[in-house]
Amino acid sequence: MPRRKLLLDACVAINLAAAARLDQIAGTMQVTFIIVAQAASEAGYLRDIVKGTTVLTPINLDQFAPSESLEIRELAPAELALYLELASIVDDGEAATIALAIHHRIDLATDDRRARRLCAERGVAEPMRTVALLHAYAEAARLKNDDVRQMLIQVRDRASFQPARSDPHLKWWNDHIRDT
Q1: How far apart are CA 176 and CA 139, in angstroms?
Q2: 3-class SS letters over the chain
Q3: Which one, of 54, 30, 15, 6, lies nearest residue 160 by Cα?
Q4: According to the model, what pLDDT value does residue 18 have?
Q5: Structural domains of the chain, count
Q6: Whole-angstrom distance, CA of residue 73 vs CA of residue 61
Q7: For 64-93, what is the mean pLDDT?
Q8: What residues form DSSP beta bridges with 32?
Q9: Do residues 95 and 154 share a domain?
Q10: Which of 28, 98, 157, 178 is deepest in the core (most CB within 10 A)?
Q11: In the beta sheet, which residues pair with residue 6?
Q12: Are 154 and 21 in contact (CB under 8 A)?
């Protein structure tokens, strides 16, 4: 069965890296994540606690590129004009991601409000959000509540992520992340 493709913007890629399960998520969901070079260069760092001190850990997306989990793409010349047009509206990573989504009709994932609005204006299918992706993975993998909670805490703490109040899966996030 061929794997479906899902474009990630930098923020969603950071959140999946923070969960420390990118390979497992891709494998369980039978998806190959795609990130454009512009978004990959924005991935930056995770925040880890080592001996009581916050340490910035570089995110190395290249480690996943040789596998079926993640593909890093450069924009093709035909996509550059649209990318430049969109970059005047959203950040470079989101602009490149949306340009690729439009040219290749690939679904994408972003939590960025402006990028989501731009997708709607350009007729791109509604983007998936981080929490929806993690929820789908947790269900597909049949994770126990403690495992879901630990994954969400990693995303919250390592990526400094908090879903928007408008996120349709906010209740699921809150129900699983709250201290027991």
Answers
A1: 13
A2: CCCEEEEECHHHHHHHHHHCCHHHHHHHHCEEEEEEHHHHCCCCEEEEEECCEEEEEECCHHHCCCCCCEEEECCCHHHHHHHHHHCCCCCHHHHHHHHHHHHHCCCEECCCHHHHHHHHHCCCCCCECHHHHHHHHHHHCCCCHHHHHHHHHHHHHHHCCCCCCCCCCHHHHHHHHCCC
A3: 15
A4: 95
A5: 2
A6: 12
A7: 91
A8: 5
A9: no
A10: 98
A11: 33
A12: no
Per-residue pLDDT for 180 more than 70?
no
Same domain, 102 and 137: no
Q: Tell me the Cα Rg of the chain.
A: 16
In this prediction, residue 65 has a pLDDT band, given cuts at 50, 70 and 90, of confident
Q: Are residues 77 and 9 in the same domain?
A: yes
CA distance 88 to 63: 31
On average, the pLDDT of the chain sits at: 92
Residues 53 and 97 reside in one and the same domain: yes
Residue 138: which domain range? 130-177
Based on the domain organization, do 10 and 61 belong to the same domain? Answer: yes
- Are 59 and 37 found together in one domain? yes
Q: Are residues 111 and 156 both part of a single domain?
A: no
pLDDT at residue 50 above 90? no
